[in-house]
Amino acid sequence: MPYEWTPHAPPLTGKDWQLCLWPYRSLLRRDFVLFIGATALIVTLPLITVLGTAILWGLLPFFLLMLWGIWTALNVSYRRGEVLEELSVDDTTVQLTRHNPKGDMQAWEANRHWVSVHLHPKGGPVENYITLRGGDREVEIGAFLDAGERLALYDDLRRALRD
What we know:
By secondary structure, the chain is α+β, with helices and mostly antiparallel strands.
């Protein structure tokens, strides 16, 4: 799952714990390089037949443009997914910090005893939308997770904040 309890699951740690959430990565950086290399190799194979002709020079710019386009699209997608949410809970305070892809941070803090976890199965921007309500604000958590992961997170958070 793309979230982790630190140092262990809340029932094992007592009252103080931290939860880190991040989007799932199906293409790691190492695999990104392998994919670009394999794509370049596969597309280059037909160019071998036109080596030494003027046709090669006509096709080469389109080949390079295609490789650059794939690399740029994957790189932009990778950077947009660099989101990290950290939920820290101690005896009196719950604090949620979100590190966005552009480097800015969003923070929310509330009294632990007034924080509640809410699941919106159909009413939110995504299925099984989870929010934390405390103080005068309600904030989302884990919107980048898939529906099943959000359900598991909801159960974990309810259990952890209840203790």
